[in-house]
């Protein structure tokens, strides 16, 4: 016999398999006897199971979804047989945070973890098992493949409880649940991992503070403590958390399938059936269950407006300052017109909570609340709790950070100050700020209906129309969708007398709500009706949906953040005219007798940031590609390069306004009083003009010559070459020629800004070329997907984008490096011709650049 142990088994287990009894430390142990004793002990314990009535006599009893028994600090769930096997959704939220966590961007109301669970009764073992599942797959009940679906998408055990008590006929059992809510176990609530804090809960400093039960949900509030190490010292952290246990409908809502031509958040689902030749991979849109009352269905189908069975109700957080409550409520009601287009009246309600309602709790999933967070964070967001089986929105909580008004003030002041005297001071009137709050309320509420950002909406309006009072009054906003980031009308000039300058609910919004919420008798009628709705509007730019893109690399210039109109160059030129007016009035608009110039410095920094944003809007057109989602029969192209004239015009704008740094912006009278001041966690951060100009110009040049942008230009050139197209195409060479001529065709002595620009140009090429050959290793870096805290309400679907287009694989063997090194050679040739010309500073500059390029090219 080979007595060497198998790697899978320790020695004791190996010998236990070989013999019916084992010698341990010289003693012979009869394992059969031990097993018998163990069984008898277990049976003895099982027989001691208390009756529920005994538990109730010792504590308090609350009736609800699960009846709750509290005996001193012990908490018991009384679970009836009817709820075993049913699916529940665990919803975990933050309800209190200390300053350190607040400063990191985590605030009350944030939903950080959800999971679907079920309870299973094991009468033989006297235990209750809890299992979780990702309900991503389904199949017809009677299909053969259904057995395989069940086995290949099975539940996982996450927790077990002993049955502590039961009623006389064992149809109800009680389990002690402290461990899943007091931090001892992470099975139901893993707050530290899911908020990115890490570490473990200190159970001796944590406890359950309150349990409430209602007919369809249970609310458990806990105080969970930990510590984080900052600079060698431990900081105590206690989080108030609320766990909701929600009973999901036995029959899920009929899902509505997504379409990439309209913007809804989605839930992924896989369908299997016996007749398939491949799995059906679909997405459900997220939406509220909205349907007419049974008695009103005929009226609804005839086109009459009817009230829904269950309206969507939003409550205003009682901690919201009183002067903003009505404006937030009005922002909710702005969507009423969209639901009326879908056939429902009084579909949405917004109101303040009843102070006499003792059950009201903003952390309770029965209430959708616009939560007001006291925080330095300048933001707002509108997430939803969703039944992943169907996409049904169960509850929505808008998180409204108090300091969002800082961003609103800056946007309005810089973008509309030149045409609106109300938007010029260090502080606006409550009425003026209230209108901005109403706009943000409408935008965030749109997210809670399931709508994603439509960043392509603003492209529908001709730029010149934004200067028309008649047009803007008629359209009532800056874009056909309030879900775009089309903030305020920076295009209109003072002489235009335009007053409708704030985003409003638009044509696309009404259409999107109708598409998502109109009720149909059955799925076949629904499918055809929704297709028809899109077909009717597919060529109308007012109904165009543009997917949100990464701000680091915009491919489709139509779908950008903060832009306006159908021509980024023209819109930005109008924007610059207004920006010069702001620049001329920075000290005037920020004047307060006896105060420092810090507000002037902040306004100055925001003004420069707006200039940079305009440059980015224009830049996206260079190497830009219009992206569509064509379907068979609509004759649309999926990829269409931006017209060559537009690309050339965009580069010309950059030459005039970036390559030639605007002195009116960076070197004006303001810097006699203050530099541009950027807010930072360490306090105000003063930016010197030369440093700021150098940095911002460099970033734009580097982005202009980015690998991905050049690869898109090369891709388009190759497509034209292969198709023998006679159309003119904008090439990489054309780009370099157009910019190089502006940067280096300077005569005699160079100014310091001209030398700066030439250094930026050369360095951007050298650094980006070298990066292609650097050895890079990514180790241990993971993005926390459970808690996404957007910077400016920056929602992206879990795919990040509907379009994942590979332009940049194997860059090292692409033509990019060839062109960049060839460009360096051309610049080197120019410099060698010029090196003995100009004054000493100019010649020293040329020598420096020659050395840099020679070293780079080796």
TrEMBL record:
List, alphabetically, the Pfam families matched: DUF4953 (PF16313), DUF5117 (PF17148), DUF5118 (PF17162)
Query: Known InterPro entries for this protein?
Result: DUF5117, DUF5118, EcxA_zinc-bd, Zn_MMP-like_bac
Which residues does the UniProt record annotate as the domain DUF5117? 109-293
* PANTHER family on file: PEPTIDASE M1A AND M12B, ZINC DEPENDENT METALLOPROTEASE DOMAIN LIPOPROTEIN
Q: Where is the DUF5118 domain?
A: 50-97
List the coiled-coil residues. none
- Where the record annotates domain EcxA zinc-binding, the positions are 426-748
Tell me where on the tree of life, at the top rank, the source sits.
Answer: Bacteria
- Identify the species of origin: Chishuiella changwenlii
**Mind telling me what this protein is named?**
Metalloprotease
């Amino acid at each position: 016999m080979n007595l060497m142990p198998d790697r899978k088994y320790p020695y004791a287990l190996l010998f236990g398999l070989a013999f019916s009894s084992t010698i341990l430390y010289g003693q012979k142990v009869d394992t059969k006897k031990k097993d018998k004793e163990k069984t008898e002990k277990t049976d003895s314990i099982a027989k001691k199971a208390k009756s529920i009535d005994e538990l109730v006599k010792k504590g308090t009893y609350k009736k609800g979804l699960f009846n709750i028994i509290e005996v001193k600090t012990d908490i018991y769930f009384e679970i009836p047989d009817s709820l075993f096997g049913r699916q529940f959704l665990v919803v975990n939220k933050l309800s209190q945070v200390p300053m350190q966590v607040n400063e990191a961007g985590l605030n009350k109301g944030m939903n950080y973890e959800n999971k679907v669970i079920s309870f299973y009764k094991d009468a033989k073992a006297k235990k209750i098992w809890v299992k979780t599942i990702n309900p991503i797959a389904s199949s017809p009940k009677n299909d053969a493949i259904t057995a395989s679906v069940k086995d290949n998408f099975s539940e996982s055990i996450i927790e077990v409880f002993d049955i502590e008590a039961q009623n006389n006929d064992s149809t109800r059992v009680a389990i002690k649940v402290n461990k899943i809510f007091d931090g001892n176990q992470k099975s139901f609530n893993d707050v530290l991992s899911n908020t990115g804090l890490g570490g473990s809960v200190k159970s001796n400093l944590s406890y359950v503070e309150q349990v409430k039960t209602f007919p369809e949900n249970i609310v458990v509030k806990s105080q969970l403590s930990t510590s984080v190490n900052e600079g060698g010292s431990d900081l105590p952290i206690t989080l108030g958390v609320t766990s909701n246990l929600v009973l999901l409908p036995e029959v899920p809502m009929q899902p509505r399938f997504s379409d990439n031509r309209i913007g809804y958040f989605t839930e992924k689902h896989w369908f299997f059936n016996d007749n398939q030749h491949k799995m059906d991979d679909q997405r459900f849109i997220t939406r509220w269950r909205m349907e007419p009352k049974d008695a009103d269905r005929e009226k609804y189908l005839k086109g009459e407006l009817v009230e829904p069975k269950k309206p969507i109700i939003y409550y205003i957080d009682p901690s919201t300052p009183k002067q903003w409550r009505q404006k937030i409520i009005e922002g909710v009601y702005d969507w009423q017109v969209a639901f009326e287009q879908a056939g429902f009246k009084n579909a949405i309600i917004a109101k303040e909570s009843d102070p006499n309602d003792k059950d009201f709790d903003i952390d309770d999933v029965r209430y959708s609340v616009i939560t007001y967070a006291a925080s330095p964070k300048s933001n707002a967001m509108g997430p939803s709790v969703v039944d992943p089986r169907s996409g049904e929105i169960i509850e929505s909580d808008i998180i409204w950070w108090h300091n969002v008004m800082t961003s609103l003030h800056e946007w309005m002041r810089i973008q509309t100050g030149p045409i609106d005297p109300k938007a010029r001071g260090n502080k606006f009137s409550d009425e003026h700020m209230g209108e901005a709050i109403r706009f943000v309320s409408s935008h965030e509420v749109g997210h809670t209906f399931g709508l994603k950002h439509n960043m392509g909406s603003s492209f529908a309006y001709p730029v010149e129309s934004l200067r028309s009072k008649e047009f803007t009054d008629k359209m009532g906003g800056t874009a056909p969708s309030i879900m775009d980031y089309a903030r305020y009308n920076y295009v209109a000039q003072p002489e235009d007398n335009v007053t409708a300058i704030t985003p409003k609910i638009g044509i696309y919004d009404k259409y999107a709500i109708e598409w998502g919420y109109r009720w149909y008798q059955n799925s076949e009628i629904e499918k055809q009706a929704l297709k028809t709705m899109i077909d009717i509007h597919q060529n109308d730019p007012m109904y165009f949906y543009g997917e949100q893109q990464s701000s680091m690399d915009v491919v489709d210039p139509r779908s950008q953040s903060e832009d306006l109109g159908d021509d980024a160059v023209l819109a930005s030129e109008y924007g610059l005219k207004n920006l010069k007016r702001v620049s001329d009035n920075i000290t005037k608009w920020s004047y307060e007798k006896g105060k420092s110039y810090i507000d002037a410095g902040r306004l100055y920094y925001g003004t420069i940031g707006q200039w940079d944003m305009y440059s980015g809007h224009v830049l996206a057109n260079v190497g830009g590609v219009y992206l569509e989602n064509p379907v068979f029969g609509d004759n649309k192209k999926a990829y269409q390069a931006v017209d060559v004239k537009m690309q050339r015009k965009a580069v010309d704008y950059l030459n005039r306004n970036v390559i030639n740094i605007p002195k009116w912006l960076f070197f004006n009278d303001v810097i006699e009083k203050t530099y541009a001041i950027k807010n930072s966690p360490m306090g105000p951060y003063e930016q010197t003009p030369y440093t700021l100009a150098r940095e911002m110009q460099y970033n734009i040049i580097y982005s202009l010559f980015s690998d991905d942008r050049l690869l898109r230009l090369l891709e388009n050139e190759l497509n034209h070459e292969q198709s023998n197209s006679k159309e003119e195409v904008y090439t990489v060479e054309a780009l370099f020629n157009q910019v190089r001529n502006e940067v280096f065709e300077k005569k005699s002595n160079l100014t310091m800004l001209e030398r700066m620009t030439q250094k930026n140009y050369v360095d951007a090429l050298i650094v980006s070329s070298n990066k292609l050959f650097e050895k890079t290793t990514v180790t241990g870096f993971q993005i926390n997907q459970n808690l996404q805290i957007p910077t400016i309400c920056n929602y992206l679907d879990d795919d990040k984008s509907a379009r994942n287009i590979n332009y940049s694989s194997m860059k090292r063997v692409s033509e990019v490096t060839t062109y960049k090194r060839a460009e360096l050679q051309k610049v080197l040739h120019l410099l060698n011709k010029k090196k003995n010309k100009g004054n000493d500073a100019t010649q020293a500059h040329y020598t420096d650049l020659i050395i840099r390029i020679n070293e780079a090219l080796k």
